[in-house]
Structures are given as C-alpha cells and as structure tokens.
Write a structure and sequence with these properties.
Elements lengths: L1 H59 L6 H28 L2 H29 L6 H30 L4
Helix pairs in contact: 1-2, 1-3, 1-4, 2-3, 3-4
Protein name: Proline dehydrogenase
C-alpha cells in the first residue's frame, strides 16, 4: 500500500513537471511566432515605404518634373511611412533591446534620406536644378546606409528568433 502511494505521488510529480515544461515550451513558441509576425510586418512596411520613396526620387529628377504626380507620390509615401511607424511600435513592444536599437538605426537612416527627398521635392517645385546632382549623390549614399541598417535588423531578428546560422 505504501509502495502504491509513493508510486502515485511520483507519477503525479512527473506529470506536474512535464506539464510545466510543456507550458513553457508552448509559451516560447507563441512568443517566437508573435515576434516573427511583428518583424515580418515591419520589413514589409519598410519595403513598401522604400518603393514609394524611390518613386519620389525618380519623379523629382525628371526634367521637368510632373508636379501633380510628384505630390501624389509624396502623399503615398507619407501613408507608407505611417505604416512603418505603426509596425515599429509593435516591434518595439515584442522585441528585446537589440531589436529596438536596430529599429532606431533604421529610423535615423530613413530620416536622413527623407530630408534629402524633401529638399529634392522643394527644389522641383521651385524649378531649381542647381543641386540636383549633389542631392542624387547624397540620396544614393543614404540609400546604401539604410540598406545596411535594414540588413543589420534582419540579422538581429534572425538571432532573436533563433535562426542565426
């Protein structure tokens, strides 16, 4: 009888430990999936915003630029930039500090490129072409820096998700 009671307690203890282990594993998987979804949405929003920015840069360099078309592209870009901001907030909530630092770097590089884009749009409206070549070179340099920042984010995300191979 004592042996049966000890055996029952041992079985119950093992079941409790296994249950807790399984719950922890499920929580880790759930957390990983939420982070993956947030990172994927963020990268998608960045991609859409960058395509919109490229369209503005191209339109601003046309000779002469179609100003109503350029302004429409700017409105489209602003909507895409807002989507990036919303996606960034989710990434910040879901991610560890390394991910937050990576999004901050992307935001910094994006701001720099956006400032150049704004100057190009302003110059297009003023029909001022004196700094077109300089702005184009600056934009290309900023685009490379932004690409590196996004690449760094991808590496950080892979590491956080456990896919760093």
């Amino acid at each position: 009888m004592l042996g049966a009671a000890v055996g029952s307690l041992t079985t119950l203890g093992a079941a409790v430990v296994n249950g807790r282990t399984q719950a922890r594993t499920q929580h880790v998987q759930w957390r990983r999936q939420h982070r993956r979804d947030a990172y994927t949405a963020y990268l998608g929003a960045l991609h859409d915003r960058d395509i919109a920015m490229d369209a503005i840069l191209d339109a601003a360099q046309a000779d002469p630029p179609d100003l109503p078309e350029l302004d429409e592209k700017v409105r489209h870009f602003v909507a895409r930039a807002r989507a990036v901001h919303r996606a960034t907030e989710v990434v910040i909530l879901e991610g560890p500090p390394s991910i937050v630092e990576a999004t901050d770097r992307i935001a910094e590089e994006s701001r720099g490129l956006s400032e150049i884009m704004q100057r190009m749009v302003k110059d297009a409206h003023a029909a001022d072409t004196t700094e077109r070549a300089e702005h184009s070179a600056s934009a290309a340099s900023r685009e490379r820096r932004l690409y590196r920042a996004v690449s760094d984010f991808r590496l950080q995300a892979r590491s956080v998700l456990g896919n760093a191979d």
